[in-house]
Design goal:
Layout (H helix, E strand, L loop, with lengths): L1 E6 L5 E7 L13 H7 L16 E5 L1 E2 L2 E2 L4 E6 L21 H8 L15 H19 L2 E9 L14 H5 L11 H14 L5 E8 L13 H10 L4 E6 L10 H4 L3 E2 L2 E2 L7 E2 L2 E2 L4 E7 L9 E4 L5 E4 L14 H23 L19
Antiparallel strand pairs: 1-2, 2-6, 3-6, 4-5, 7-8, 8-14, 9-14, 10-11, 12-13, 15-16
Bound molecules: ligand EPS.
């Protein structure tokens, strides 16, 4: 199960091809609406003001409302591109942007917006993952949900990774788990936008309901595939599984997740041991950098090597991480579906292995 996407931010359309999808999954254009709206720009003053309809056209792979097993092609036409916003920086490199590396690699670049490196590309990842989320839920009862757990240096006052208030997360435009802080976030973002600067963010994804056994032991480890998938999202600079970098300062006697007949007593591993799922919740945390398209002047070069001062106007996200929760969920769902199918292909006839340790920790580790 794999996807590829195509299209540029200011081209006529963006799209994806989903290959290796099992037949018989009911899919209609309406199925895409919810997650695409969660990811879209222009919903609040805290994200880019570009208004895209993000209407999905299903071009292939679905017949009479169900997947046929052949490649699924999805298309979204761009309806609100404004390439002239970029006319003044078409031959300049924005420091911190992929402008420079695309130029060095290809010797030319599409200067309309971020082109292929624009967050617009993530739309199709979210669309493709609607199919994966549906299959995972129907076939395995797996639920993939995410939330924003840091903007700049602001973190949730109340946050328990084992008991996230998902209703609160979905009730605010930040996907923030602590409802008491929405006013604080609004003021922070208003001040940031006025200053012309941008900021980074952290997104946590939790996948629950997995059986133990998904993931390959060496090449294609579940955590390795997840890390690669998250790092493939533009603006991502870091990924943690479970306790991640906090594990550096932990002792082994603390980090090991004790096992009782009632279940694991903690989940420092993030639901993965040896590249294979334990059956506990998978926990993936992703770091987004502050975006580089700023109206604050910065020193740079143009494509002829002349020193220039770059000022980026147009419609940009002061914190692209705010819209990244559905994108991170999407990448986790795509990896899980692929690993589930791979596991079924290799071990499908192995059956239930005893003992199965209950997924839910029933007590706090000492
Ligand atoms: C983006 C810049 C803006 C955003 C875009 C990501 O677009 P434009 O190129 O029109 O200025 O609106 O995000 C989307 C359009 C989207 O759908 O996510 C950028 O520089 O990455």
């Amino acid at each position: 199960f794999a996807i590829t996407t195509f299209g540029e931010s200011h081209g006529p359309a963006i799209g994806c091809v989903v290959d290796g999808c099992p037949p018989g999954i009911a899919i209609a254009p309406e199925d895409f609406r919810h997650d695409l709206e969660r990811r879209a720009t222009g919903k609040t003053r805290h994200t880019s003001a570009r208004h895209e309809a993000d209407e999905v056209e299903i071009l292939s792979g679905v017949y009479e409302g169900v997947t046929t097993g052949t490649p699924i092609a999805l298309l979204i036409r761009n309806t609100d591109a404004r390439s002239k916003d970029y006319a003044n920086i078409a031959a300049q490199f924005r420091p911190g942007h992929a402008d420079y590396t695309y130029w060095q690699k290809y010797g030319l670049r599409d200067p309309r917006g971020g082109g292929r490196s624009s967050a617009r590309e993530t739309t199709m990842r979210v669309a493709a993952a609607v199919i994966a989320k549906k299959w995972l839920a129907q076939h395995h009862g797996v639920q993939v949900r995410g939330c924003l757990t840091q903007i700049g240096d602001i973190t949730p006052h109340a946050f328990d990774a084992e008991n996230i208030d998902w209703a609160a997360v979905e009730a605010n435009p930040f996907f923030w788990p602590d409802a008491s802080q929405i006013g604080e976030l609004e003021s922070y973002m208003d001040a940031l936008r006025k200053s012309g600067d941008s900021v980074g963010a952290r997104v946590d994804v939790v996948a629950e309901g997995l059986p133990p056994g998904w993931g390959e032991p060496i090449y294609g480890k579940l955590d390795g595939e997840l890390a690669a998938a998250m790092m493939s999202i533009n603006a991502v600079k870091g990924v943690e599984i479970g306790d991640g970098f906090a594990a550096i300062a932990q002792k082994g006697s603390f980090h090991r997740d004790e096992i009782s007949a009632d279940g694991f007593l903690s989940n420092h591993a993030g639901g993965i041991l040896g590249g294979i799922s334990t059956g506990q919740a998978i926990r993936v945390s992703t770091a987004f950098k502050p975006t580089s398209s700023l109206r604050l002047p910065v020193q740079s070069l143009d494509t002829a090597g002349n020193a220039v001062e770059v000022v980026t106007t147009g419609r940009h996200d002061p914190c692209v991480g705010i819209r990244a929760t559905p994108i991170c969920e999407a990448m986790v769902a795509l990896v899980l579906m692929d690993q589930a199918l791979r596991h079924r292909a290799q071990c499908g006839d192995v059956g239930e292995i005893a003992p199965r340790i209950p997924a839910k920790a029933t007590g706090k580790k000492r």
